[in-house]
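User: Before I run my own analysis I want an independent prediction to cross-check against. Here's the chain; please return only the structure tokens and, at the end, one sentence I can use as a sanity check.
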Amino acid sequence: MSGLDNDQNSLAGTPPSSPSSHSAPLPPGLPHGSDLGPRQQQSSEPGVGPDFAGTQDSDAAGTDDAEAVPTTSQKRRAPDSESDGDMSQYTGQVSRHFKLKRTDADELTALGKRSIRKILLYNTGQGMKTRERLDAIQPANAVWEIPKRLWSEIEYYTYAVLCSPVLPTYVSGSYPVGVVLKIVSANPGWGYTPEVKNDKQKQEIVAERVRTRLTDRRSAIKTAILLSIGPEKLTELDAMHLTKPKNAKTQPTPPVKLNILQLAAEVSGLHRSAPAKLTLELCARIAYLRRRLEKMLQDKPKNTDQYWKIVDKKLVELRKGSAVEVSRMIQRGLREDQDMYGTVDANEYEEAASGDNDIVNIAAAGKSLPSSAMFLAS
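Assistant: Structure tokens:
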């Protein structure tokens, strides 16, 4: 019996392994008897928990007292409980700290009343939506660039198409844009592959480049025609102010009167690496364009921004006549231009190359267009 008493006294007199943990205060707001944390919950043996610290009485350390320790405080809350206490004060602090908008602050407050599992699902869904939006946005340094070969072909064909003597429209219906895109589509080896064509972002990058270069080409052609009218005629039409460049820093080019062959050479020289052939048909079309600009200047416009739309409108009216009537009208326009700006020997024109005059068919077949002569009508 004495041996048992000695064992009980030895057990009761053994100090706890972490004495400092029993003297630490409870977290703020945690009532006495609530969850005490895992360290306190492990001390369920007699004489080890804080209720027995410092007890030397062997009777106090008996089995009956150990069995009387309440166990309700060791229960955990249900993992999917709808609330983890009143978090409204803390959510208010977070909202003020991050300066959230009222709607966001209200959303945060509502989340504070939800279970951990519901908040996790909400955050996961929000993360998925954020990833979706990020996938739709590419940083500026990652924007797809047009391949060098495709870039070069766009440079040429935006010029060649506008030099076509049979081009039906210059701006209306985005016809020239469609022609150039059809040409590059028929030649995927240049870089406008099916993968690029089916990618909306890449397709728009190519289309925008085509539109921009066509606008630049039209502007250059119009300027060349305007300057070719000459200072005397421009002064007579009170249009000298239109020869000044829009950019004040750009050096103005003085107007010089040119005959139709000289003007066609100016237009042809806009693409130095592959200029258009100076055919009779090309000269006739440029003479028509110069005549239309003269007519426009007679109305004393403030600018020539509507020039190409007027040209398209007149071309539609011109095509309403028979082929014979159209041919006679073009020939008459060419003669009138020579009367105004100087004659040209017929031998100075290059012979027109024969070929299909349907630009769309040429583009669809992917045929090479070394010069605008490939567009000529028979």
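Sanity check: The mean pLDDT is 75.
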